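Troubleshooting log. The previous run stalled partway through. Resubmitting the same two chains, unchanged.
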Amino acid sequence: MDYKRDISGELAEISPLVAGLPKHTPYGPPEAGYWETLPGVVMGQIHLQAVQHRQVYELPEDYFDNFPSKMMGLLQEYGVPVAPEIQAELEEHAPLLASMGRKTVFELPQGYFEQFHVELPVKAQGRVVSFPRRTQQWFAYVAAAVVAGIMVSAAFIFTDENTGLKSSYNAVENINVSEGISKLSEEEIANYLNAHPVTGEIATSAGNEISEPEFQNAVENLSEEEIQQYLLENGEPGEVLPRGI
Amino acid sequence: MHLDDKELLYQFKQSATRERAFTSIIKKYQEKLYWHIRRMVIDHDDANDVLQNVFIKVWNALDNFREDSQLYTWLYRIATNESLTFLEQQKKRTSVSLSNVENGLANKVIADKHFDAGKLEWKLQLAIQQLPEKQRLVFNLRYYDEMPYEEMSKVLDTSEGALKASYHHAVKKIEEFIKNH
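Second attempt completed without errors. Output:
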């Protein structure tokens, strides 16, 4: 037993005095038969522990199945228990009311809460036309350009100097856009829009949108004569129509 | 002749041989554990209570024993913890201060019916009871149980270096006590 020799050597190295002391534990041994009976005593304790932990009470089979409805029934019959301070307050202010109890008089259909559910209203689904983000941005740019064009045109029209586009900041700033637009003819507005065609879907009114394919289709169905006629009526002075439209 | 620990653990896990295996475990380790506990709590009745608690705990926990240490190391660990818990509860019950715990245990040594102040082995017991709790444990495990530091480290959950230092201090204090008394 090398390690035991090591232990003795270690002790002798630290304290030869302690190493030389008698080693046995002087306490008296347990009473006779202690070692023989101890295993039985311990197993007895273990069996007792097992019995104590076993559930001795029986429970009806469907006890928890109907528990909620039983509780609701009891509450309806006897009333909801009241907090002591609330009851005390009621007794102070209205003893008659306090003595009446809180029995619910209204009846509830059987199984009401079990079958209870909420039907959410269905939203009216209109035809949804979605504008791609880029098209939405385009419309914003076009709208801004139209307004700016109208303002510039109005400035051109209403300034005293008839020298073309006047880039005076003050003149533009003082323009009344609404008034200016009301004085523009339809022809002038259409001319401007023709010069800057809008792509994508065009919303004319709610639920009456014209999709781009429909617009294209309508344009394609126009005869050459009809197109030429339109351009003659609405074109710029001196503008030469290209052939083959 | 005691069965191998591995065999005992295997039989414990079979329902047919469970109780028989456990009884064998008790018989194999009862004396070692008893004296380890007795050296801590001094009184036989206290040691008996603690020892029974230890084996009940072992019964409840043995299914989960991972066998990553020796069985006896694991049993010693439980016995040590139960002894310390008992001493802690005794402190609270009698409302003794920490310094008086050692005096209380020394008084129990003196109260033993076999006590003989003239004999060196009883002086050694008195000296041991003067030690702080941890040093007392380390000294007992090394001196009486001849436990290697590696095993002791698992029992006490302390590094080997700290245990060696603790043992050294304990032996020196005992030497001082013996010289002065």
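Takeaways: Chain A is about 55% helix and 0% strand. Residues 200-208 of chain A have pLDDT under 50 and may be disordered.
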